[in-house]
Design goal:
CATH architecture: 3-Layer(aba) Sandwich
Shape: globular
Strand content: 15-25%
CATH superfamily: Survival protein SurE-like phosphatase/nucleotidase
CATH class: Alpha Beta
Strand order of the largest sheet: 3-4-2-1-5-6-7-11-8
Number of domains: 1
Radius of gyration: 20 Å
CATH topology: Stationary-phase Survival Protein Sure Homolog, Chain: A
Number of strands: 11
Helix content: 25-40%
Structural class: alpha/beta
Largest sheet: 9 strands, mixed
Distance between the termini: 42 Å
C-alpha cells in the first residue's frame, strides 16, 4: 500500500528523540502499577525492517519491562509480503548480527521468524514471537496481505505463540501521521505482561492480531476479522518508466464492513481491537456442505 509514501517519514525524528521516561509518563497509572512482571524470552520482528523506529521503540520498552528481547527482522522494508516464505531450496539467505540482540535477515518477515526460531533459538524456542508495531492498521482484508500478521503465522509453523501489533495511520493529516505510536507501544507492553501471567501464553495454534486506533476511546474489544479493505490498489499507465509499465496507486474506501463487530469498524470507532487467528484458510463447513452435492460423482 505504498507504505513509504504513507509514512512520509512521519514523525520519526520526534519519536527517536523521545526519552524512555517521557514514554513511560504517557502510560496510565494502572500500566505502571501492574507488578510483579514475569519476564519472557521474545523474538521481535516486523515487516518495516529491523531499524524502523517503532520496532526499536518496542524493544526498548519490553527490555525495560524485564523481558529478554532479540530482534530478528527483515533487512529492508518488506511490507505487504503476507505469509511469503522462501522455500527455493539451494538458494541463500543472508542473516547479519547488526548489534547485540539485533539480527537483519534478507527475506520476508516469515523468513526472519523461521531463521530465528530454527537457528538462533534452535532447540530452545522463545516464549513468544511479537511482530510490529506496524506503521498502519492491519484489519479486515488487509490482514491477509500483511507481513506483520504473516510473521505470526510463520511462528505457528514452529508451535510458538505470537502477537501482531499495528498502529493505525491518520490519513487526515499531511503527511499521514501516527499520533498514537508511543501509546500503542505502551499498550503492547501491557498486553505482553498480561499474557506472561497466564498458565499458558496463548491457546494452542492461536495468534493475536492487535490494532491500536488513531484516537483511542479507552475501550479494548475482541473483534471479528472483517472482509473489506480500507485501502486497495489502482493501476495507471506509466510510459515514462517503460512501454508496458503501470504505476501502483492507493485507493481509499469508506464503505462499511459487512461483518458485525468487525475489527475495522471498531478500530475506526476508537477501540483497540484484538482478533484471534489460527492461520487456517479453510472455508466455513456450510460452504463445503453446499459444494459437496454439486461435485458428487466426480472421478479422478
Amino acid at each position: 500500500m505504498a507504505k513509504r509514501v504513507l509514512i512520509a517519514l512521519l514523525m520519526v525524528t520526534a519519536f527517536l528523540t523521545a526519552t524512555p521516561s517521557a514514554q513511560a509518563q504517557q502510560q496510565p497509572p494502572s500500566a505502571q502499577a501492574e507488578q510483579p512482571r514475569q519476564g519472557l524470552r521474545i523474538l521481535l520482528t516486523n515487516d518495516d525492517g529491523y531499524g524502523f523506529p517503532f520496532i526499536q521503540g518496542l524493544k526498548q520498552a519490553l527490555d525495560a519491562a524485564g523481558h529478554e528481547v532479540t530482534i530478528v527482522a527483515p533487512a529492508t522494508d518488506s511490507s505487504g509480503t503476507g505469509t511469503a516464505f522462501n522455500a527455493r531450496f539451494g538458494t541463500t539467505l543472508q542473516a547479519e548480527r547488526k548489534a547485540p540482540g539485533v539480527w537483519a535477515v534478507s527475506g520476508s518477515p516469515g523468513d526472519a521468524v523461521a531463521f530465528g526460531l530454527r537457528v538462533l533459538y534452535a532447540g530452545d524456542p522463545p516464549d513468544l514471537v511479537v511482530s510490529g508495531p506496524n506503521a498502519g492498521q492491519n484489519v479486515a482484508a488487509v490482514a491477509n496481505h500483511s507481513g506483520t500478521v504473516g510473521a505470526t503465522i510463520a511462528a505457528l509453523d514452529d508451535g510458538v505463540p505470537a502477537v501482531a501489533f499495528s498502529t493505525a495511520v491518520d490519513l487526515t493529516t499531511d503527511p499521514p501521521s501516527f499520533p498514537s505510536a508511543q501509546r500503542s507501544i505502551a499498550f503492547a507492553v501491557k498486553l505482553v505482561d498480561r499474557l506472561a501471567r497466564g498458565r499458558e501464553i496463548l491457546p494452542s495454534r492461536t495468534v493475536l492480531n492487535v490494532n491500536y486506533p488513531v484516537r483511542p476511546n479507552g475501550r479494548v474489544s475482541f473483534a471479528r476479522l472483517g472482509t473489506s479493505a480500507f485501502v486497495s490498489t489502482a493501476y495507471a499507465p506509466a510510459p515514462e518508466a517503460c512501454a508496458t509499465c503501470y504505476r501502483i496507486l492507493p485507493v481509499l474506501t469508506s464503505a462499511p464492513d459487512p461483518v458485525p463487530d468487525a475489527d475495522r469498524t471498531l478500530l475506526d470507532a476508537g477501540h483497540v481491537t484484538i482478533t484471534a487467528l489460527d492461520g487456517s484458510w479453510e472455508a466455513h463447513p456450510a460452504a463445503t456442505a453446499r459444494l459437496r452435492p454439486r461435485l458428487a460423482g466426480l472421478r479422478p
